């Protein structure tokens, strides 16, 4: 009997070490998700707002998920160190739920990847047609930020603005200009010279989709662990 106990102790010690290491890795992934959520809110805020038409919850979901995983990672380390059966059972249940969420998120992301890009294209087109050049409008600010940061003008090019109410009155927005100080209002309304003053990148949708995909890849990579 004593020899069996001596054989069991090293095994239990090894298992506890592995579980603590896994809990630490789990905690790190929570920290990464939290950081990605904060980064997404600060740097991708305008893009997400346009995708969701003012109801952008993805960064908050990442922040909430990351915080929850951080707390449960610490809980797992504590449960392992204390060897508490009920705490270990609760931790195992949480890991199982995370595994289910991972499967659902992976399938949903794969199935709806094209719909997300189409939704962004549709919402951006609506935002361009509703554009009034108001700094008080979140949508107008999002459109301006997109064009400035991605060096684009319109959905495909600057001619998209010619079909809008704003474009027919004021021309293209100043956020389309290479150098705003070198873009007089008369030039923005002049269809013969405006092409030389504004950005000419082919598609704004592809650039935003690539940045959104980068964030999703980080999200799925974290859940894989």
TrEMBL record:
Keywords: Disulfide bond, Membrane, Transmembrane, Transmembrane helix. GO terms for cellular component: plasma membrane. Disulfide bonds join 153-176. It is found in: Membrane. It comes from the Eukaryota. Its main location: membrane. The keyword DNA repair does not apply. The chain crosses the membrane at residues 20-40, 60-79, 91-112. The keyword Transmembrane helix applies. Belongs to the tetraspanin (TM4SF) family. PANTHER family: TETRASPANIN (PTHR19282:SF252). This is Tetraspanin. The lineage of its organism: Eukaryota, Metazoa, Chordata, Craniata, Vertebrata.
């Amino acid at each position: 009997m004593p020899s069996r106990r001596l054989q069991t102790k090293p095994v239990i010690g090894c298992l506890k070490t592995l579980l603590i290491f896994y809990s630490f890795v789990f905690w790190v992934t929570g920290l990464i998700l939290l950081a990605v959520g904060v980064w997404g809110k600060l740097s991708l805020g305008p893009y997400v707002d346009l995708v969701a038409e003012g109801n952008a919850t993805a960064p908050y979901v990442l922040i909430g998920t990351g915080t929850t995983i951080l707390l449960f990672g610490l809980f797992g380390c504590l449960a392992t160190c204390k060897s508490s059966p009920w705490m270990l059972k609760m931790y195992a249940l949480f890991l199982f739920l995370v595994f289910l969420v991972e499967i659902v998120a992976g399938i949903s992301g794969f199935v709806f990847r094209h719909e997300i890009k189409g939704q962004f294209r549709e919402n951006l087109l609506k935002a361009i047609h509703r554009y009034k050049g108001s700094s008080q409008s979140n949508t107008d600010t999002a459109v301006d930020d997109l064009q400035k940061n991605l060096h684009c003008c319109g959905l495909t090019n600057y001619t998209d603005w010619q079909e809008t109410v704003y474009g027919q009155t004021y021309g293209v927005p100043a956020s389309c200009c290479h150098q705003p100080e070198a873009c007089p209002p008369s030039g923005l309304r002049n269809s013969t010279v405006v092409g030389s003053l504004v950005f000419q990148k082919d598609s704004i949708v592809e650039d935003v989709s690539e940045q959104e995909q980068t964030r999703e890849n980080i999200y799925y990579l974290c859940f894989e662990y």
